[in-house]
Please model this.
Amino acid sequence: MPARATASATVSFGLVSIPTKIYAASKSQSVHFNMLHEKDKSRIKQQYVCSTCGEVVPRDETVKGYEYARGQYVVFTNEELQALEQKSDKTIEIEEFIPIQQVDPVYFEKSQLLGPDKGGHKAYALLRRAMEESGRVALGRFSTRGKQQLVLIRPTADGLMLHGLYYADEVRSFDDIDSGDDAAIKEGELELAQQLIDQLTNDRFEPARYEDEYRQAVLEMVDRKVAGEEVVMAPQGEEREQIIDLVAALKKSLADGDDGKQRAKAGPAKVEPGRRGRSRKRA
Model:
C-alpha cells in the first residue's frame, strides 16, 4: 500500500520554493497493553479528577495552567494562547547549510520522509543532488501548528529526510552528571579493549540482524493463549558473572567472542518451526 502523507510543506531557500509532502519514516512495533477491570475484563476509562475536591471534572470545565512555583499556576485562556501562536504557513525556511558531521545525534528528536509534491519534482531533485555533492545538510525552521520547529533536511540516495531537532537548551550535557574522576588507563588494558572492539566490528549497519525479542515472546504467548494452550513460564536465565578485574573481564570477553565465531561457522542452531522470528502487527 502506498504511503500516505501526514502533512504538506513548502521548502524555501533564497527565491526557490519547493512544494513537498511529509511522510512518517518509522512506526513503532512495540507491544501495547490495555488496562482492564480484573473482575469482568472490560476496558477501564480514564477520567480527570480534581486533586483538591476529588470531583470528576468534564473536559469542557478544564483550563490550561503553567506551574511557575510548586502548587502555584498562571492560568491561560484559549484566546491568550492563540494570540501567542506564530504564523502556520507550513513553510520550511532554510537558514543555512552545514556539514552533517557537525550535528550531534543527541539533537535528533524525530525523523520523517520528505517527498516532492505536484510541480516540485525537478527543484526537489536539484536540491537533493546539490546537497549530496556539497556534503552539506540544511538547517531551518518549520512553521506549523502555531509554532516554529527547528529542523534539518538531509539528502539520501533515495530522497530527502526531514529531522526535527531539539533546541540547545533542551539538550543536557555531562556537566549535569557525575562522570567520576579521570581514571589512569594502562597500555595493556587499552590494547585489550581495542582488540575486543576489532572483534565486534562490522563494516555496515545491518538493523535487520536485530529483533525485539520481548515483542516476539509476547506475541507468541498471545497466540498460545488465544489457541487455549497451557502456558508454562520458562525459568529465568542465570545472572551474568560479575568480574571485577578489568583485564580479566576483557580477556574473558575476547575468549567468548572467539567461541561465538566458531559456533557461527558451524551453522545456526535449529529452532522450533513457526515459533521464532514471527512478525505480527498489533496496536
